[in-house]
Amino acid sequence: MRYWLMKSEPDEASIDDLANAPQRTLPWTGVRNYQARNFMRDIMQIGDGVLFYHSSCPEPGIAGLAQVSSTPYPDPTQFDSKSPYYDAKSTQESPRWMLIDVVFKKKCPLIALAALREHDELAEMRVLARGNRLSITPVTKAEWDFITKRLM
DNA sequence: GCCAACGTTGGC
DNA sequence: GCCAACGTTGGC
C-alpha cells in the first residue's frame, strides 16, 4: 500500500468531476512523462491512496482524496488522432502510455500550496521541491497521515 | 504574461 | 554520447 499525489488541472478534471463521474471513477489520461507513466505502469496498485491536487489554476492545492482502482492498461487517448494526447509513434501492439483508474474517496476544503509549505512535517514532500514538474509523485506514510489527519 | 526549471529532440 | 535548442510545466 503506497501513497501518491496526483496533479490535475481542474479545468480538465476536478475533484467534483471525479465525484460526479460514473462509478465515481476516471481514467488518468494524458500523462506523457515517462517517470509518471512508470509509476502507473509498474508501481501503483489498487487501493493505493491518492492526494488529488489541483494545479495550474487560481488556487493550487490538495482538493480531496482518491484511490487507485484499476491495474494498468493503455491510455486510449494515445490512439485518438483528434485528441491533444495523440501519439503517432504509439501502436496498439506496443502502446507507449499506460494509465490506471482513480476512484473518488472524499472532497476536502482546499489545502493550498502555500499552507502545505508552512508545515515542517511536509518540508520534504516531492511536490514542494524546487522546480518539481512531475505530475505524479510518491507521498510517504508520515506525510499522508499528517495531511489526512491534521489538515483535513 | 513572466520565467525558472526541467524533459525531449536532434545534429554532430 | 554530448549538449544546445526548444517546448512544457506551473507558480506567481
Structure description:
By secondary structure, this protein is an alpha+beta fold. The chain has a single domain, classed as ph1033 like domains (ph1033 like fold), CATH 3.10.590. Helices cover 20% and strands 28% of the residues. It is built from four helices and eight strands, in the order βαβαβββββαβα. The protein has helices at 15-20, 34-43, 113-116, 141-150; strands at 3-8, 25-27, 49-54, 61-68, 73-74, 98-99, 101-112, 136-139. It has a six-stranded mixed β-sheet with strand order 2-7-4-3-1-8. A two-stranded antiparallel sheet has the order 5-6. The longest helix is centred in the N-terminal third of the chain and has 10 residues, at 34-43. The radius of gyration is 15 Å and the shape is globular. The protein starts with a strand and ends with a helix. 28% of the residues are buried. It binds a DNA duplex (12 and 12 nucleotides) through loops. It comes from Paraburkholderia tagetis. Residues 2-149 form the EVE domain. This is EVE domain-containing protein.
